[in-house]
Amino acid sequence: MFSKIMVPVDLKHLDRMQKSLQAAADLARLYSATVCYVGVTSAEPSELGHGPGEVADRLADLTKTEAAKHGHGGASHLVISHDPTTELDKALHETVGEIGADLVIMATHIPNVTDYIWASHGGSLALHSRASVMLVRG
Amino acid sequence: MAGQDNTQGIPVPEGSADIIDTDYTIGQDNIEGQLGPFGFDIHNPVFIVSGLTIVAFVFYALALPDQAGAVFGWLRPWLTSTFDWFFLGAANVFVLFCLFLIVSPWGSVRLGGKEAAPDYSYMGWFAMLFAAGMGIGLMFFGVLEPVYHMAISEPLGVPSPIGEDGAIIPENVEAARKMGLAATIYHWGLHPWAIYAVVALALALFTFNKGLPLTIRSAFYPIFGEAIWGWVGHVIDILAVFATLFGLATSLGFGAQQANAGLEHVFGIPNNITVQVLLITAITAVALGSVLRGLDGGVKVLSEINMGIAALLLVFVLLAGPTATIVADFFSGLGAYAAGILPLSNPVGRADTGYMQGWTAFYWAWWISWSPFVGMFIARVSRGRTVREFIICVLIIPSLVCVLWMAVFGGVAIDQVLTNPAASSVKTYVIDSYVPELSLFAMLEGLPLATITSVIGIILVVVFFVTSSDSGSLVIDTITAGGKVDAPLPQRVFWCTFEGAVAIVLLVGGGLGALQAMVISTGLPFTVVLLLMCWAILRGLMSEAR
């Protein structure tokens, strides 16, 4: 039913993503799909590395670990954004088309009052993406 | 945005760069959490200390307005008259340093690594750095300064063409006209942009090539080493936040008064606190929208719109005014600037202290106090340029645009004053009585379609404030998040709103003038800081691949 599953990853908060990573691995095995782990970062140095290259390496390491652990095909895709805080939704939406994902599995927070002011990233993607989107509450 | 597939681990994508090996991890001093439903990620001492210090100074200005006014009202002119030689000398060093970098072998070092590609097109990049840097000043001083220097301040002792009785003195006209433009261009040309270029280059180099966080302290790594992660660095960052927020808030307060004066002049809208508070609220609301839309969707778009409108107004004034005279003014102003730049920048033994201390030293302190904000913003959008390209585009091109702007706006205004002084509103508001906020509208009054162009002028003033306010909020947010550019959105909302609130409180309670004087006074310590930065840049460039 699905051939390419996209999993947006926040490398700074991997502890909050275990459920979505597990769900992606289970569904990938069920449908023999490959999983593409997607990160969005800026060009500026961050706690993840001195530049995008180091962040890409971290994402690749995560991909290798998950693929080896769960036995599915894995790839990673890093988007370099001028302003990740505000451009994340657009970056994820464009990446779905770029990598040809047919299912997105994404960790998201429990809804709260701020969702009335600005939508969650998962909610925004589900609203606009043509691919199926599965939101996993953290 | 750029994407990259990575299935086997990739090499550093931007080519070789000399990363500084430090034990510090970005965000290690940050506090991350939730305040109710709002997430936050703030640098522990910098956010809290700068926020509390700002509140304390606002209270001081409100509680003891006379004392604050007296202290800072005295401090600023004392600094610019006592240290005029230092400000002028340092600014000369910055220009020479930038020119040296253009011709030096280090000019080929690329910001972001040897294979980095520019993040923005020339047009988008230039619009952003210009709108953040001095757009609003051009609106305010474009008419005022050329006329004032021609008729009143007498730079380098060039006599005024207007006598005590208000009559034109024909033999003084040509020299005074040229000097009016040259003395203005001097304040808006190479020197201010060299100040911004030094700060921006230092930050871009140490962030994109050395891997340090995008915050002011990073530029001092070659000088202080690992100590910049302690209180030395905290103080530098706190000072930068302090100068940026108060610089923006006080300018916003004065800007609202200027826009209100324009609205009264054109439409008869009452000039009072209520209208000014509404103007600040509107400017802050638009800036908030821009900040929420981000760097590409908000700040860049608004900057480009603003540059487009400003260009239209410039072309209109050029065509509606005495075009041949303006074109001649452009070249004669440029020539007079080239001829006058050495004597005008001479820091010692000057007789024209009114011009040198009251204008030049004041301007240099002002530009320098704004340089952390503008420099950091320019740095953020300049990745991928070579040092040579960076300096040429930040130093030479904006200087030429300023020359053009001053030649057109100042040239038309000077022409109005000299050809028909009795009918010139510019003469009334600049020479006879000093009402600087009306000088632009007075010049436009002498041209066709004055009501329409005045409305465009007011819109430009307001939007230039928005483009300063949104980029300033981004800068403050990044510094107070310890150099993180992806801090939670509510923090940007906080700083943008806080800036508007401080402006309103100071406008209503008094204290705008005192705190603006205080901000300009920070120009003195920052001048020392900038001189150290030149050395840090050289140290940093030496180890880079060319």
UniProtKB/TrEMBL annotation, chain A:
<dbReference type="InterPro" id="IPR014729">
    <property type="entry name" value="Rossmann-like_a/b/a_fold"/>
</dbReference>
<dbReference type="Pfam" id="PF00582">
    <property type="entry name" value="Usp"/>
</dbReference>
<feature type="domain" description="UspA">
    <location>
        <begin position="1"/>
        <end position="137"/>
    </location>
</feature>
<dbReference type="InterPro" id="IPR006016">
    <property type="entry name" value="UspA"/>
</dbReference>
<protein>
    <submittedName>
        <fullName>Universal stress protein</fullName>
    </submittedName>
</protein>
From TrEMBL, chain B:
<feature type="transmembrane region" description="Helical">
    <location>
        <begin position="46"/>
        <end position="65"/>
    </location>
</feature>
<feature type="transmembrane region" description="Helical">
    <location>
        <begin position="390"/>
        <end position="414"/>
    </location>
</feature>
<keyword id="KW-1003">Cell membrane</keyword>
<keyword id="KW-1133">Transmembrane helix</keyword>
<feature type="transmembrane region" description="Helical">
    <location>
        <begin position="228"/>
        <end position="253"/>
    </location>
</feature>
<dbReference type="InterPro" id="IPR000060">
    <property type="entry name" value="BCCT_transptr"/>
</dbReference>
<feature type="transmembrane region" description="Helical">
    <location>
        <begin position="359"/>
        <end position="378"/>
    </location>
</feature>
<comment type="similarity">
    <text>Belongs to the BCCT transporter (TC 2.A.15) family.</text>
</comment>
<feature type="transmembrane region" description="Helical">
    <location>
        <begin position="85"/>
        <end position="103"/>
    </location>
</feature>
<feature type="transmembrane region" description="Helical">
    <location>
        <begin position="446"/>
        <end position="466"/>
    </location>
</feature>
<keyword id="KW-0813">Transport</keyword>
<feature type="transmembrane region" description="Helical">
    <location>
        <begin position="190"/>
        <end position="208"/>
    </location>
</feature>
<feature type="transmembrane region" description="Helical">
    <location>
        <begin position="493"/>
        <end position="512"/>
    </location>
</feature>
<feature type="transmembrane region" description="Helical">
    <location>
        <begin position="124"/>
        <end position="144"/>
    </location>
</feature>
<feature type="transmembrane region" description="Helical">
    <location>
        <begin position="518"/>
        <end position="538"/>
    </location>
</feature>
<keyword id="KW-0812">Transmembrane</keyword>
<keyword id="KW-0472">Membrane</keyword>
<feature type="transmembrane region" description="Helical">
    <location>
        <begin position="307"/>
        <end position="339"/>
    </location>
</feature>
<feature type="transmembrane region" description="Helical">
    <location>
        <begin position="273"/>
        <end position="295"/>
    </location>
</feature>
<dbReference type="Pfam" id="PF02028">
    <property type="entry name" value="BCCT"/>
</dbReference>
<protein>
    <submittedName>
        <fullName>BCCT family transporter</fullName>
    </submittedName>
</protein>
